[in-house]
Backbone:
């Protein structure tokens, strides 16, 4: 952790700020949320990394999609993701967002979340332990350092593909497109 | 010279406010037997927030938070810090009382523009809580102004420096106790953290604040913390001759407030108003009667 | 240029407007505006000149006098400016209603009567103009028919009661002193005993207290102001109430005199102290009743009662600073209450009569100018620094604190918190929040409504930054009444126990706002979203139901509403019911059968003969 290296702060304050102040939207999307309270309370203290849960997507820049994603939850996830201010990072938490996990043959769950919103990193496990969450956070720092955590940029550039996929599974969407065809809102 | 005082006052307030925000998280973490973030974490949060593209709901949304921050900055200039008091000759304690209204009004306007019922509930709670602690606070301030026969806060500090702290002087003892009882409500820490209430109303007025707006709201909150504690130190703990003593007094008061914050849960708004209008008001009222009788 | 000319133009203008209205409504509109603006100009010229008496009519051996001094002209300029602005506002408001000629006639007549009241130099003309104002107000309150008729009836009954008390006082002065000229009475009243002066004060207090809606006499105000047409509501709340204030100042300070007035009574039981306490109670209770209201105009009406308490508290307290504060607050309150009623009237006009706070919302997107006006009016009402309301309230607070009356100061300071709560409720429920679907098509206010709103808002800010301009006039009024002079500068008031320097605060706020704005601009540019894109926990916003307006202050309203029931109004209603019961009982004497009447006559004769035979009193 290079939080106390003042030179880096002076050279690239934005990147260092994004790394050490990851506020996660406290949106319990699925069963995986059961592993989040232990990681933010006293035993596995997440606040020492700067990770804090916040109440609304407007104040957040990290979205942990914990556990399986049913079709109903997908609507809420997309809305919440679009309400977050940029730059924002998403982490798929558990096996279900990766490939359907335990519900691989269910009619009601999403098997590949990456088709609907951009994901920057995955944490395998069912459920991943809090230590796995911290490993994921440190990997996210590395990605941010190397400018590879660009999910929000991918969303902006390929918005049409994402929106087509969303409409395929959710039917007609009752919120307007976030970006116009050209790219910026 | 005046310009130097103004800039010094503002920088001191910002530094102390943000330091206190970070210190509060560290102390709370240590009370919870965990490590907690570094004390500079609010600075890191602010750097991150000011590098995000926020979301706005219109012109009033931007102007509201600017007005709130401007109001807090002006109150900072009106309070004496040790020997630095740039604007304190412009109306005294009454002006401070009414400038302290600009900040909640600004947040209320930009929150109302956000068109979210969570903001509206949060703001109605904020105004009700303020009305709750204003009853004892007005009795306390009237006791102070009647006892020292002035409305200028610099003169009050000066008189305390000559004789003794108001908290330990006999006519003002009850008012001092009442002020200590309502201090968590004035600062907005638990058990009176009713306005933010992230678990109940999703941060109340700040529900739609993102990016730079949240950054400005954090700075305003830090300045609000500073103003609340500085007012108490100036009125009851004798102010100070230089900023360092002032800072130490503020630190003692703040750490005691954090201990209370860590131990207590959040009250409901009607429980809070009932508490504030009961014992603290009784103490403050009797304190005012004592001051009037002993004058 | 004399007072007589002003009154001739005012009264003549109202009659000619009515006649012109029969010819063409456009000519009548233009003429009404011209008359009111001409009145403003004439009074401004009088203000720049100097005072004097001018007799104009001889009636029953008394000469009816007009006079102009700074006090009269200060009130007169407020009356004429507010009257002109509300006539300009009425141009659009009243356009498609019936009996518009009658409306303009009454509005101009009321203005003329109020000018007559403040310009009159003797008590008889004062009483005549007072009566003209009272009944024309009744006619105009009942303009809307329906619920307005009951409201008007309540008003006129209470007002007549007050006028009768005043008549008794005037007649008693005439029989005792033989003159009704105000300056002569002021000279000769020093010979009268304290008891007589106190009884006069109580009689006139009844009359002026009913008009000024001090607490035991306030019941007529909320229904009257809520049901009257909005431009007239702004005149009612803004200036008609203050005729009571003018009466108080006239009687307490001009006639009885400062020194005598302060000395009347023993210690705590003095007239001035009791009036101050009534003023303090009038601040507290109606301000908190206003919190609980759901009708925008009723909220503003209760707020008027509360603010009138500030004015009475300032004037009754009797020090030079407090009287200056009270008079300045009278002027300020006319401006911002007039502004608020005009803003609510503009909203009512565009939404076809909706005043219910629980069903409006989000109108800032459609009516930005009206919102800005209402916001500035609300800021003035609260007394935020940089508005003129702050200066007048600062004066009142300072004198109450430094003259060692902390409990009255507490009432004044706590009243401001009630004001903050209901002002925010008004602004939030009408202009902020989500815009309902049914108001998605309303247009902005018309220009003739925006003009008065903009004018009044600029007055609030201008006199907030440069309070010295009206304070100099008020200072000269105070000196002429016999108080000490204040040290007034362009930007505030200086004194050894606390200075007010508004320009510093103004500069500080501007610099603070600029700094915050720079910080905001330096961050990446933010994205603007519509009202549908707000936090709802990932769900879609339920249309038209995502606005929090009902029971806005629910927690505290449950706690305090049992204590805020209007006992006094219930008492008056019971009194009225009892009177009606007695009278309908007495009516049963008239059975309509002549035989009963003959029996009454015979019985009375028998009783009289019996009394004469037994005791021979005649």
Residues:
């Amino acid at each position: 952790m290079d939080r106390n290296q003042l030179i880096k702060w002076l050279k690239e304050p934005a990147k260092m700020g994004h790394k050490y102040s990851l506020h996660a939207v406290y949106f319990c999307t699925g069963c995986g949320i059961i592993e989040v309270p232990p990681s933010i309370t006293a035993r596995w203290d997440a606040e020492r990394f700067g990770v804090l849960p916040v109440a609304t997507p407007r104040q957040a820049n990290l979205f942990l999609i914990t556990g399986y994603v049913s079709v109903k939850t997908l609507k809420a996830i997309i809305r919440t993701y679009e309400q977050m201010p940029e730059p924002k990072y998403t982490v798929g938490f558990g096996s279900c967002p990766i490939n359907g996990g335990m519900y691989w043959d269910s009619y009601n769950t999403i098997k590949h979340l990456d088709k609907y919103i951009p994901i920057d990193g995955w944490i395998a496990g069912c459920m991943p332990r809090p230590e796995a969450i911290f490993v994921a956070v440190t990997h996210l720092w590395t990605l941010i350092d190397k400018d590879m955590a660009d999910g929000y940029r991918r969303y902006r550039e390929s918005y049409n593909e994402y929106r087509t996929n969303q409409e395929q599974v959710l039917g007609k969407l009752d919120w307007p497109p976030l970006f116009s065809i050209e790219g910026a809102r | 010279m005046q310009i130097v005082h103004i800039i010094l006052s503002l920088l001191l307030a910002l530094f102390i406010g943000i330091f206190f925000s970070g210190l509060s998280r560290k102390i709370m973490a240590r009370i919870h037997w965990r490590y907690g973030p570094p004390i500079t974490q609010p600075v890191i949060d602010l750097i991150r927030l000011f590098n995000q593209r926020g979301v706005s709901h219109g012109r009033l949304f931007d102007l509201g938070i600017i007005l709130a921050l401007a109001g807090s900055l002006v109150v900072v200039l009106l309070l004496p810090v040790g020997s630095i008091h740039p604007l304190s000759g412009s109306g005294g304690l009454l002006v401070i009382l009414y400038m302290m209204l600009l900040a909640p009004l600004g947040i209320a306007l930009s929150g109302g523009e956000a068109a979210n019922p969570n903001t509206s509930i949060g703001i109605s709670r904020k105004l009700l809580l303020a009305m709750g602690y204003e009853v004892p606070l007005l009795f306390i301030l009237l006791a102070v102004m009647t006892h020292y026969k002035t409305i200028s806060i610099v003169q009050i500090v000066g008189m305390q420096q000559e004789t003794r702290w108001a908290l330990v002087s006999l006519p003002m003892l009850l008012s001092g106790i009442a002020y200590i009882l309502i201090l968590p409500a004035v600062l907005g820490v638990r058990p009176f953290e009713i306005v933010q209430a992230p678990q109940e109303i999703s941060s109340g007025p700040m529900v739609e604040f993102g990016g730079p707006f949240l950054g400005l709201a954090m700075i305003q909150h830090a300045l609000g913390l500073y103003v609340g504690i500085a007012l108490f130190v100036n009125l009851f703990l004798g102010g100070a001759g230089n900023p360092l003593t002032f800072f130490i007094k503020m630190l003692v008061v703040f750490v005691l407030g954090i201990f209370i914050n860590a131990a207590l849960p959040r009250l409901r708004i009607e429980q809070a108003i009932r508490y504030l209008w009961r014992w603290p008001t009784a103490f403050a009222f009797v304190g005012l009667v004592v001051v009037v009788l002993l004058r | 240029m004399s007072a007589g000319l002003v009154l001739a133009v005012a009264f003549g203008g109202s009659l000619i407007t009515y006649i012109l209205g029969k010819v063409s409504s456009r000519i009548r509109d233009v003429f009404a505006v011209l008359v009111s603006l001409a009145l403003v100009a004439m009074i401004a010229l009088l203000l720049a000149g100097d005072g004097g008496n001018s007799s104009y009519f001889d009636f029953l051996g008394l000469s009816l006098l007009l006079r102009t001094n700074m006090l009269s002209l200060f009130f007169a300029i407020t009356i004429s400016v507010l009257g002109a602005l509300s006539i300009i506002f009425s141009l659009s408001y009243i356009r498609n209603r019936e009996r518009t000629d009658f409306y303009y006639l009454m509005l101009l007549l009321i203005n003329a009567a109020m000018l007559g009241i403040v310009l009159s130099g003797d008590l008889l003309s004062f009483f005549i103009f007072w009566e003209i104002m009272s009944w024309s107000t009744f006619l105009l309150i009942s303009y809307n028919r329906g619920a307005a008729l009951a409201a008007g009836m309540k008003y006129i009954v209470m007002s007549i009661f007050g006028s009768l008390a005043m008549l008794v006082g005037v007649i008693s002065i005439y029989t005792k002193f033989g003159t009704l000229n105000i300056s002569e009475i002021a000279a000769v009243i020093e010979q009268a005993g304290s008891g007589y002066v106190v009884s006069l004060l109580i009689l006139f207090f009844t009359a002026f207290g009913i008009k000024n809606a001090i607490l035991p006499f306030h019941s007529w105000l909320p229904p009257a102001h809520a049901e009257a047409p909005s431009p007239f509501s702004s005149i009612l709340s803004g200036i008609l109430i203050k005729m009571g204030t003018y009466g108080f100042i006239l009687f307490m300070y001009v006639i009885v005199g400062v020194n005598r007035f302060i000395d009347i009574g023993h210690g705590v039981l003095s007239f001035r102290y009791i009036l101050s306490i009534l003023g303090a109670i009038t601040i507290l209770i109606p301000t908190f009743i206003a919190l609980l209201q759901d009708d925008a105009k009723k909220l503003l009406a209760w707020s008027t009662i509360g603010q009138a308490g500030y004015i009475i508290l300032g004037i009754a307290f009797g020090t030079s600073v407090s009287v200056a504060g009270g008079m300045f607050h009278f002027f300020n309150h006319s401006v911002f209450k007039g502004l608020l009623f005009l803003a609510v009237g503009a909203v009512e006009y565009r939404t076809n009569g909706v005043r219910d706070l629980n069903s409006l919302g989000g109108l800032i997107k459609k009516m930005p100018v009206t919102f800005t006006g209402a916001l500035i009016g609300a800021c003035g009402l609260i007394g935020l620094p940089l508005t003129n309301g702050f200066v007048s309230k600062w004066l009142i607070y300072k004198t109450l604190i430094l003259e060692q009356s902390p409990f009255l100061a507490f009432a004044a300071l706590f009243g401001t918190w009630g004001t903050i709560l209901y002002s925010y409720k008004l602004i939030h429920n009408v202009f902020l929040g989500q815009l309902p679907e049914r108001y998605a098509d309303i247009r902005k206010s018309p220009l003739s409504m925006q003009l008065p709103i903009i004018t009044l808002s600029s007055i609030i800010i201008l006199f907030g930054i440069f309070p010295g301009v009206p304070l100099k006039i008020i200072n000269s009024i105070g000196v002429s009444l016999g108080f000490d002079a204040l040290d007034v500068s362009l930007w505030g008031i200086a004194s050894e126990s606390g200075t007010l320097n508004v320009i510093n605060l103004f500069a500080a706020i501007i610099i603070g706002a600029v700094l915050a704005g720079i910080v905001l601009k330096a961050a990446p540019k933010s994205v603007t979203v519509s009202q549908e894109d707000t936090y709802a926990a990932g769900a879609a916003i339920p249309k038209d139901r995502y606005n929090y307006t009902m029971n806005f202050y629910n927690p505290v309203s449950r706690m305090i509403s049992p204590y805020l029931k209007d006992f006094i109004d219930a008492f008056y209603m019971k009194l009225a019911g009892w009177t009606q019961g007695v009278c309908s009982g007495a009516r049963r004497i008239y059975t309509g059968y002549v035989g009963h009447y003959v029996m009454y006559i015979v019985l009375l004769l028998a009783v009289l003969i019996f009394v004469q035979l037994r005791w021979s009193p005649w």
In short: Chain A has a mean pLDDT of 90.
